[in-house]
Amino acid sequence: MIYWFDLLGVAVFAVSGALAAMQAGLDLFGLLVIAAMTAVGGGTLRDLLLNRHPVFWMKDTRYLLVIVASALAALMVGPFPGHAIAVLKIADALGLALFALCGTEIAEEHGVKPMPALLMGTLTACGGGVLRDVLSGQAPLLLRKDIYATAAIGGIALYFALKAMGLPMRWAFVLGMVGVAALRLAALYFGWQLPALQMLQLH
Amino acid sequence: MIYWFDLLGVAVFAVSGALAAMQAGLDLFGLLVIAAMTAVGGGTLRDLLLNRHPVFWMKDTRYLLVIVASALAALMVGPFPGHAIAVLKIADALGLALFALCGTEIAEEHGVKPMPALLMGTLTACGGGVLRDVLSGQAPLLLRKDIYATAAIGGIALYFALKAMGLPMRWAFVLGMVGVAALRLAALYFGWQLPALQMLQLH
Amino acid sequence: MIYWFDLLGVAVFAVSGALAAMQAGLDLFGLLVIAAMTAVGGGTLRDLLLNRHPVFWMKDTRYLLVIVASALAALMVGPFPGHAIAVLKIADALGLALFALCGTEIAEEHGVKPMPALLMGTLTACGGGVLRDVLSGQAPLLLRKDIYATAAIGGIALYFALKAMGLPMRWAFVLGMVGVAALRLAALYFGWQLPALQMLQLH
């Protein structure tokens, strides 16, 4: 079941990449590249850092097919109406939650300690969005707005805390995911943001 | 013979990187970095993703020597006259064709299926140009203008189609290369472009 | 002792990343990401290119702890007074020297030839700074200003020259480090810069 959730997460992230590409005025090829980067960029960086080969989308072609289909669908639906954007943001929060916990678990399976594993989970969940922003010529929004990566970190930390308290791994995993999604959705609903740090005059 | 073609492709891409660095007002070190990134960045990403070690320019130092020599030559020739730019664009189309098909074949040799292999070929051919643009502070042109990556994809698809129709691999390879170069040169000659996608108002 | 120097270099680079993040108006998460990227980004790229696993900060969690502590310290000290910046620049020159020579030696231990080893040393020392600039939305300063990477290259070249002249490796290593630091500090003190290359009119 996690596999199908995973494909759903990939689809949602591909749509988010496609929307960014349309906003940036890219062409069809650019749209597909940005959609793919957003959807599997984080997981690919994780696999490279963990020396996990073959990279997941190389052995299971379904990922690439889902990306192409989602990006083309986003293109054809065209300017998204407001409520479609809202649905997309909820799906995105679920994808974020799933990718964060799956990435963490994969790192643990590779014998990585909790602190770098938390980093790998966050990278899996948020790396694609950073690549999307850099490649479409923007400073990464992720680093500057929204409780997004912070939600991932919070949920992963909850997962480690629950495991340390003796909860079975499966329950800690699910509750960690719920934590990420709840933090992200609450931040969206209430408009929470981390404060930007004070400017410096270095000269 | 492919080896010498390969070095020629590296030289041409290094010159293109050096030109971009001069336009961006970088210094000598920046020029060499951008030239190297443009020339071997795509192939390096491919090798990392395929877990192919040592990375090709580490065992054969000739690649780095060719890059340094080409970049310095570009610097000394200085502002390129119009017809030198034209020669360069033709050589660039040949380099694109060679890198696209070689990258695809290397991926196939590593047991990668056609769809990700097509991706690896496109990455080999176009990844360096994207790195060049990001590092010299521009939104990647590749994703926004010109039939460039599209030519690579078209030629690689032709290669797979011809192989599937029973053509010997060697012939499919050569015809795929001809396909890439022809598409690219025709796009340059006739000014073909992919249409930019419509803008979206996300908020 | 090199290990403690290494952690010091990581701390200094993390502070430099944190300062850049504050200037760019990022939030707390962005600050930590940029600090980590600046501190270990170059070494991580080196490890990936050399196929050296696990990546150094995965097996020794102390690196991540030092990064978090340094970045938070930089945040709390707030707008740095002028003389703190001066101290930081000196520490940065020492970190640059250490990372350049350590990166080179690690590459040599992996059987890499001198020219790519020089590249690996430069990447270890300067890669993090380039990532910092790209992620905080600036064209990489490194490629455009200051004798920075050039100092790394000069010191590494000195190291190879001294080894070739028969000096024991340990002495060549130390003198190479002195070379990097001296070049960098002299460039800061005298305001040396590489000249920007001439602009080109490509069309």
From TrEMBL, chains A, B, C:
One Pfam short name: Gly_transporter
Principal place of residence: membrane
Gene Ontology cellular-component terms listed: plasma membrane
Membrane topology, record value: Multi-pass membrane protein
Segments traversing the membrane: 30-49, 61-78, 147-164, 171-192
InterPro entries with a match to the protein in the record: Gly_transporter (IPR005115)
Annotated compartments: Cell membrane
Key words, A-Z: Cell membrane, Membrane, Transmembrane, Transmembrane helix
Residues annotated as domain Glycine transporter: 3-76, 90-163
Family named by the database record: Belongs to the UPF0126 family.
Protein known as: Glycine transporter domain-containing protein
Organism: Roseateles chitinivorans
